[in-house]
């Protein structure tokens, strides 16, 4: 198997995947923030990992072979950084959504804030269209604002009359997806925002949604503790992952679409095989996990838990972890 800076060769066989992770299940922990980490994400070239925190800052790490090295800390938000999203093809640009009623664009090469866009409410979700032209941001009042990245201005706002949870684009940027409190996935055309269809995906609140990098699947995670895997073209549910026992908060697909990581308040992160639904591996954790992100070309998973600092375990630790490292160290 090729395992270089360029990436890995996908593994086809379930038994091979399991044996690979039997020898690559070590993790390293890094101190990133002074309070809990809400969101982690990789740049498109896989060279940088960003984390956003309740402490209002954004940390940038460089991946050097099998370890993360802190590069910089971005400050400027005056509220919690709740979600971040990198540009799909420019590895230097990062967007962050904050409770301070703004979205910021950061240039990791110049270490500067490239733009600050004022929005109408406390933001909780952000999604950058794969073609790079638009950033969508959702707030606590279920208003979704669309920002033109050429002008850094809000070009359209859509108010929903139900609880909007996570938002996402398909890989061709012409469909916009959102999950809601009624267990549904709403799919709209973009840029016209005409409702195409409503999928009744779960009996409980539909919390998170993720599209796979190959464009075959999307997955939804729900308060019913289930993860559903969907065929993008047929809009048919292919299989359900049911190994977690708590509401599913976060999902991530591996670069080849083969692995789906899902996490919750369970003290494991589940790694499932999208082709069979079988468990490939599980990562033991000490606390609830609210963000996971597979590397864009390697079987490396970044994640952050609601860990507490020892010894009193009263204060939130702002740590992030990297899993999938070779056991030999």
TrEMBL record:
Cellular component aspect of the GO annotation: THO complex part of transcription export complex
Biased amino acid composition, Basic and acidic residues: 309-318
One matching Pfam family: Beta-prop_THOC3
Gene Ontology BP terms: mRNA export from nucleus
Keywords from the named record: Repeat, WD repeat
UniProt xrefs under InterPro entries: Tex1/THOC3, WD40/YVTN_repeat-like_dom_sf, WD40_PAC1, WD40_repeat_CS, WD40_repeat_dom_sf, WD40_rpt
Stretches forming WD repeats: 30-71, 74-116, 199-240
Disordered: region residues: 309-329
Similarity comment: family membership: Belongs to the THOC3 family.
Protein name, entry field: WD repeat-containing protein 55 homolog
Organism: Manduca sexta (Tobacco hawkmoth)
